[in-house]
């Protein structure tokens, strides 16, 4: 008896939530979204899947797109800002906007290739470079078996200057150095 009451309550709650979650039909006539602003992302997703990730495969480009998201996002330091030094903007697209500078930093070696591959996609879609990098990384990760489905949020402002060198952890850093770098970067979240 108690199980039936619990099941009825859960079913009622799920129905109420579904009724409150409105979806909009996108102009493409195929997709729906909870926010009309997200409709443009379906075309970006489809273009990435078909033309960068070779039909939605877990390719080297998918791996490098995810790596690019981290290298762009970790490049922020409130500790440097507290000293009056520009500490980078985090997930602001600076690694692609200032690729001639940032891809030359030691931990970013090799990322120039994915930046070049993504450039035509950025040019043909009305999305900030910052948002594109994070979105492409989330789509690329979704193609790999066992990888989580990453949420991608849009609305980032593109960088106006390159991030300083030394903000991306390197393989030779000690765990304490890496954790310290992550703690510094995560201060912006608090």
In short:
This protein is mainly alpha-helical and 190 residues long. The protein has nine helices and two strands; from the N terminus they run H-E-E-H-H-H-H-H-H-H-H. The longest helix has 19 residues.
In words, what does this structure look like?
This protein is 52% helix and 2% strand. It is built from nine helices and two strands, in the order αββαααααααα. The protein has a two-stranded antiparallel sheet with strand order 1-2. Helix 3 (60-73) crosses helix 8. The protein is globular and about 50 Å long. The model has no long low-confidence stretch (mean pLDDT 90).
Strand content: under 5%
Low-confidence stretches: none
Order of helices and strands: HEEHHHHHHHH
- What is the terminal separation in angstroms? 46 Å
The spatial strand order of the largest sheet comes to 1-2
- How does the overall form come out from the CA principal axes? globular
Mean pLDDT: 90
What are the defining features of this structure?
190 residues; mainly alpha; two-stranded antiparallel ribbon; 2 strands
Per-chain topology:
Elements: H1 2-20, E1 24-25, E2 32-33, H2 39-51, H3 60-73, H4 78-82, H5 94-97, H6 99-102, H7 111-124, H8 129-142, H9 175-186
Antiparallel strand pairs: 1-2
């Amino acid at each position: 008896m108690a199980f039936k009451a619990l099941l009825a309550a859960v079913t009622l709650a799920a129905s109420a939530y579904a009724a409150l979650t409105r979806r909009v039909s996108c102009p493409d006539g195929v997709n729906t979204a909870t926010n009309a602003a997200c409709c443009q992302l379906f075309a970006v997703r489809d273009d990435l899947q078909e033309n960068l990730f070779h039909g939605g495969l877990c390719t080297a480009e998918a791996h490098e797109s995810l790596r690019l998201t981290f290298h762009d996002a970790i490049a922020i330091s409130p500790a440097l800002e507290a000293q009056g030094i520009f500490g980078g903007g985090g997930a602001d697209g600076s690694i692609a906007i200032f690729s001639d500078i940032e891809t030359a930093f030691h931990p970013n070696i090799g990322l120039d290739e994915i930046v070049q591959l993504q450039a035509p996609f950025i040019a043909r879609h009305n999305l900030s470079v910052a948002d594109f990098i994070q979105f492409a990384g989330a789509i690329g990760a979704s193609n790999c078996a066992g990888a989580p489905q990453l949420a991608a949020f849009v609305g980032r402002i593109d960088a106006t200057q390159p991030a300083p060198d030394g903000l991306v952890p390197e393989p030779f850093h000690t765990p304490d150095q890496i954790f310290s770098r992550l703690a510094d970067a995560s201060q912006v979240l608090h």
